[in-house]
Amino acid sequence: MPAFHHPQSDTLWSYASGSLDEASSVLVATHLALCPECRAEVARMEALGGEMLEDVGMAAVSASSLDDIMARLDSPALVKAIPQVEKIPANDSVLPSPLRDYVGSGVGAVAWRKLTKGVEYFDLPVRAEGHRARLLKIASGTRVPSHGHGGEEITMVLAGGYTDEFGSYERGDVATADVTQVHQPVADAGEPCICLTVTRGALIPSAIFSLTSRVFRRLSA
Ligand SMILES: [Zn+2]
After folding, report:
1. How much distance in Å is there from the Cα of 77 to the middle of ligand 1?
2. Separation in Å, CA 85 to CA 12, 29, 92, 98, 197
3. How far is the centre of ligand 1, averaged over its atoms, from the C-alpha of 107 (Å)?
4. Helix (H, G, I), strand (E, B), or coil: what is residue 23?
5. For residue 35, how far is its CA from the centre of ligand 1 (angstroms)?
6. pLDDT tens digits along 51-86
7. pTM of the shown model
8. Range of the domain at 172
9. Does residue 53 belong to any structural domain of this protein?
10. Alpha-carbon distance 218 to 221, whole Å?
11. How many angstroms does the Cα of residue 61 sit away from the middle of ligand 1?
């Protein structure tokens, strides 16, 4: 079943052009493994980007920016290849291969750590400064504490599902929350909800968040 919720267009553009940070690139590559629609969209963007580069011509590329481009191409940090349709091995039906490479194992062997009651986490070894990529395992029916965001948070569901103020999300679905949104995800009944979240900036508990956003609104009024 195709995913219902997808990464935002500017995120796909950044991915297609190779300028997306490592943590978000892992999430997008994982989504592409499950979403033919976004795979086609990224392929279209890449073709368009290639045409634009040809139009500009290599003469316009300065020596230093060429160095930047070559360094970026060499960087193992970037998950740049568009994954083919995922063939899931019988022993792991949860983690598509771009993500499994980062986790270093199937979901059964993940070294989960306790975050709070009913919620476990595993941090992916990404090097993007100021970004965090984290697997979360939320027991069915668990309410994650209500929180706002100091920066953007992108979440993709890998197993089970959850519902918050903005909708319901199942395997392959992506939700993007910005600094204005406070939400309280609740894991669906049934199996645990396993998801990948990428955050830029800290999470802020909603009590503090509403206070700071009130102050911010007052300051910017
Ligand atoms: Zn998609």
Report:
1. 22
2. 18, 11, 15, 12, 22
3. 22
4. helix
5. 5
6. 776 776 655 555 555 566 555 544 444 444 445 444
7. 0.73
8. 105-210
9. no
10. 5
11. 32
CB 176, CB 8: distance < 8 Å: yes
- Residue 124 included in any domain: yes
Distance 21 CA to ligand 1 centre (A): 18
Separation between Cα atoms, residue 197 and residue 149, nearest integer Å: 12
Expressed in angstroms and rounded, the spacing between residue 96 Cα and the centre of ligand 1 is: 14
Q: Residue 117 contacts by C-beta under 8 Å, 6 or more apart in sequence?
A: 142
**Which pLDDT tens digit goes with each residue over 91-116?**
467 998 889 888 888 888 899 999 99
Q: Is residue 41 part of a domain?
A: no
CA–CA dist 149, 202 (Å, integer): 6
Give the total number of structural domains in the chain. Answer: 1
* Sequence-ordered list of residues with C-beta below 8 angstroms from that of 21, at least 6 positions apart, any chain: 128, 131, 200
Does residue 193 belong to any structural domain of this protein? yes
How many angstroms does the Cα of residue 67 sit away from the middle of ligand 1? Answer: 32
- For residue 174, the CA-to-ligand 1 centroid distance in Å is 8
Give distance in angstroms: CA of 210 to centre of ligand 1.
32
Dist. CA 37 → ligand 1 center (Å): 5
How far, in Å, is the centroid of ligand 1 from the Cα of 26?
14
The CATH number given to whatever domain includes residue 146 is 2.60.120.10
Q: Which residue has the higher pLDDT, 86 or 134?
A: 134
Q: How far is the CA of 16 from the centre of ligand 1 (A)?
A: 14
Positive or negative torsion for Cα 64, 70, 73, 77: negative
Taking the centre of ligand 1 as the mean of its atom positions, its distance from the CA of residue 201, in whole angstroms, is 24
